[in-house]
Design goal:
single chain; alpha/beta; three-stranded antiparallel sheet; binds pyridoxal-5'-phosphate
Length: 414
């Protein structure tokens, strides 16, 4: 437990920002050159708006193992690993060989290949809630398809989403991902705040926002909207606002409440997937959701997504009542990458090794935090970890609003 943390001197933070921005610009002139050129052909100079990180994005030229190089030749240790998609690291030699071989046999059939079946079987084996699974190409598609399935199964339209979670960029889930304090409303009755223009009002009207770690609020919402809510979609451990862990008993309460109200529970395991444990969240917390969504690390770095659950729910696809389609679904490159990653690289020993490294890093941070009375805490689970720039543990999104964004920026630049 921390003693009283030091007070952050904001003048000093600004000085660090100025100094580190200057150092950043000095060592990355080619990234700046490419970024300036990109601005005329790509909005914000990037293909995904969150890549537009100030002062300007680094342009990457190559990556290998745990290291990544920018266009100016600077080498970095890559703790980000594409939001955890690359738990096996960049260009793992076993994967490189497997994908070269596959490329020689065709990269896209838009017809079934055997690896799709083998990878589906591996997901069924690893993830307790999955009896049947379908593949798509991203986490966004996985949550979109899971929500459609839940609506079909329950014949209801409304979705409950947790404030501060990110589930991709389709309309239903682009609500209250990181709303401003003014827009968010009261902490117990949060407003539904669209994160983008262009989302129809009736989509917003079908999304109800609930605070994380607050079972009473969920009970109230489902009672107020009895018979209207198809599903609650949530990450069991929030990973869009640093990392926020569930309080004791919270996930079980969510399960009990949703069952009582006939509402499906969707766990978005796009980030937690195989990174927190070989079998995901339900291996660590004995709570069984109705559907889970996967992506990122199950594909070893190739585009992939998947959603699955009990046959009783997936049968709507079996019966062709819910359409799930896609030219690239189950494509042989992603299937090969996923299969090799899960069956040859993510061995039990590899999982244990990654978790051990993560714990070691977290312990090192903890030591520093204690030695220097820093106003930080560490949230760590499996191979995932995060240094949160606030003294107390965060219970839900509202705590995120207290984080000093200039300090976070200085920390990132440093
Ligand atoms: C929890 C979660 N769900 C869904 C998504 C969307 O995944 P994708 O970017 O592959 O569409 C993300 C992306 O960061 C995520 O973190």
């Amino acid at each position: 437990m921390l003693r009283n943390p030091i007070t952050i001197n904001s003048d000093l933070v600004e000085k660090i920002v100025v100094r580190e921005e200057a150092a950043f610009k000095k060592r990355t002139p080619r990234s700046l050159e490419i970024y300036k050129r990109a601005l005329s052909s790509l909005p914000m100079g990037v293909s995904s708006s969150f890549q537009a990180i100030p002062p300007y994005p680094l342009t990457i030229s190559r990556a290998e193992g745990s290291h990544i190089w920018d266009y100016d030749g600077n080498e970095y240790v890559d703790f980000h690993l594409a939001f955890g998609s690359l738990l096996v690291g960049h260009s793992h030699p076993v994967l490189v060989k497997a994908l070269r071989d596959q490329l020689g046999k065709g990269s896209l059939y838009s017809l079934p290949c055997a690896d799709t079946v083998f990878l589906a079987e591996e997901l069924v084996r690893r993830f307790a809630p999955i009896e049947q699974v379908r593949f798509c190409n991203s986490g966004t598609e996985a949550t979109m398809d899971a929500i459609r399935l839940a609506r079909a199964h329950t014949k209801r339209d409304k979705i409950v989403k947790i404030e501060g979670t990110y589930h991709g960029h389709h309309d239903t889930v682009m609500m209250s991902t990181k709303p401003s304090a003014e827009a968010a409303g009261s902490a117990d009755h949060p407003n539904t705040v669209p994160a983008s223009l262009g989302i129809p009002k009736d989509v917003r009207d079908n999304v109800i926002i609930a605070p994380y770690n607050n079972a009473e609020a969920l009970e109230r919402i489902l009672t107020e909207h009895e018979g209207e809510v198809a599903a609650i979609i949530t990450e069991a451990v929030l990973m869009n606002v640093g990392i926020m862990l569930p309080e004791d008993g919270y996930l079980q309460s969510v399960r009990d409440i949703t069952r009582r109200h006939g509402v499906l529970l969707i766990f978005d395991e796009v980030k937690t997937g195989v990174t927190v444990a070989a079998g995901g969240i339900t291996e660590l917390y004995p709570v069984e959701p109705d559907l889970i969504c996967l992506a990122k690390s199950i594909g070893g770095g190739m585009p992939i997504g998947a959603f699955g659950g009990r046959e009783e729910i997936m049968r709507h696809i079996n019966h062709n009542e819910v359409l799930h389609l896609g030219t690239f679904n189950g494509n042989p490159m992603s299937m090969r990458a996923g299969l090799v990653t899960l069956t040859q690289l993510f061995t039990p020993e590899a999982h244990a090794h990654a978790n051990g490294l993560s714990k070691r890093l977290a312990d090192g941070y903890l030591q520093l935090i204690n030695d220097f009375d820093m106003p930080m805490h560490i949230a760590q689970i499996g191979a995932k970890g995060c240094a949160m720039l606030r003294h107390e543990r965060a219970r839900n999104y509202r705590a995120w609003l207290d984080v000093d964004t200039r300090l976070a920026y200085a920390y990132w630049l440093f």
